[in-house]
Amino acid sequence: MAVGKTSSIIEERQNKAEKLQAEGVNLYPAGYKIDITSSEAIDRFGEMDEDTLEQESDSYAMAGRIMARRDFGKASFIHIKDRTGRIQAYIRKDRIPPDKFSMFKLMDIGDFIGIRGRFFKTRTGELTLLAEDLSLLSKSMKSLPEKWHGLTDVETRYRQRYLDLIMNDSVKEVFVLRSRIIQEIREFFVEKDFLEVETPMMQSIPGGATARPFKTYHNTLGMDLFLRVAPELYLKRLVVGGLERVFEINRNFRNEGISIKHNPEFTMLEFYMAYATYEDLMTLTEELFNHLLNKMFGQSVIEYQGKTIDFAPPWTKISLFDALRDLGGVKDEIFQAKENAAAFASECEIAFSAKESHGQILTKLFDHLVEPLLINPTFITGYPTEVSPLSRRNEQNPDIVDRFELFIGGREIANAFNELNDPADQRERFENQVALRDAGDKEAQFMDKDYVTALEYGMPPTAGEGIGIDRVVMLLTDSPSIRDVILFPQMRAKTQM
RNA sequence: GGGCCGUUAGCUCAGUUUGGUAGAGCAGCGGACUUUUAAUCCGUUGGUCGCGAGUUCGAUUCUCGCACGGCCCA
């Protein structure tokens, strides 16, 4: 956008603003008493015939943004938009106070208007508010995007989300649904006697996930702090403290690339349940999603980007290795030696570093070969211990852990496991992570001695799970990009407009 | 970080292939119009064609670089 350019549209609006002020009109008055919203009006009067509507002698005050106007010399139809929808109003010069029509003539699409009047039906049967009085509530100095095509430029939609929300009703619907989804999740867990808690966003040791953190600094304490990559280690400290069922819905921050399914800050649900196992959490997760779908859509099947996803339980459960072999077409030898896995990954043109472990390469193979195939909800189990430093080992096979990841629509949605509560094993796992970090793995985890100390005091057998809320919202709103479900997605800084 | 595509009026888009500084619709402005629905009719304003450099008599157009965005890959 050019700098220093004077738009004639802005000049026109400034002229109008000055004229309005000269007439004694306050461009930005405080408040306005509203009697009814547009959807309430339509609910109450929309079905009435004209005669019945005429019996309704009350007048009502409404307010909203002018979205369209059709002028006829001494009269005008406008559409005003409020939080619930839009409604038409009819302004006639002979029905409003003498000075108000000239004021109305100086008002524009985009201005906020307050109208008091009576409802009637037009010839075409549209419920319309016939103005008896009107007020300017806020002057708009910029012209809104075009009424027919609206705003489609994705960059502007993300950078100026307010315009997107004004112009694209479906965008608003997504965020209304997002809010409802989170509300329902909250109620689901509160109903099951979970306690909602808030744990630190700023951590001196960033733990709980394999991810690179953002770094910041506290001036007074003179110390580095990291934005959390996960709340996990704090939530489990609370389980040690006797809060046997806790959950948190909050932001995590990961200093990684931005993509159609990654935003540097994203919303995570994590919950921990003492005495439960990861098998119990499978059932709980099935129940949670079916509760959500039932509340939102009244059915257990949804369409996501042209694919049908059926949430009816029970969901498929398959181990990582079985899935790789049966769905990914990987041969048994791949599981026997790292060299075989590495050779196969190269063959498939899947990039990996020589430093990566056998388990890391296997999970990479899984990401490329199997993950896109998992459309219906699928629990993948049996993850290698080396890629699960906070999970309890499987009793039959200590090389794998009691863990599942949940995939829906070809994407990872949740991650859950029996929590490692053996302090000696946990210390050892941290030490392995530190060794990886020293060897250059920037995503490897840090030693958290206090967390080990907490485990030394004793943590009950516990299972925990994290669910990516943005991805759930994407699924349930049929949104292709995470940016469509985050109000203000991260963008590169741009010069001031 | 790499590849491909895009950036023209407030908004939605043409145009540039074959270089000669740009068009439409909506919005705006002036006029007519007291039941319209993308109202209609008449007239009309508005653009350093993302930024910078190169080639050229001349670049919005060709070349290179940069910025921002989208998709794919990492």
Account of the 3D structure:
The chain is built from 16 helices and 18 strands. By secondary structure, the chain is of the alpha+beta class. The strands form four sheets. It has an eight-stranded mixed beta sheet, sandwiched between helices. Strands 1-2-3-5-4 form a five-stranded mixed beta barrel. Strand 8 and strand 9 (223-227) form a beta hairpin. The radius of gyration is 29 Å and the shape is elongated. The model is unreliable at 1-6 (pLDDT under 50). It binds one RNA strand of 74 nucleotides through residues 1-2, 5, 7-10, 12-13, 68, 70-77, 79, 88, 90, 92-94, 108-109, 120, 122-124, 126, 128, 142-156, 158-159, 167, 257, 260, 351, 481, 491-492, 494-495.
Brief summary:
The protein has helices at 8-22, 38-45, 50-55, 100-105, 154-159, 161-167, 169-191, 232-240, 278-297, 320-326, 333-336, 338-347, 358-369, 423-438, 449-457, 469-477; strands at 60-72, 75-82, 85-92, 112-121, 127-138, 195-196, 202-203, 215-218, 223-227, 245-253, 265-274, 301-304, 307-310, 316-319, 378-381, 403-408, 411-418, 462-468.
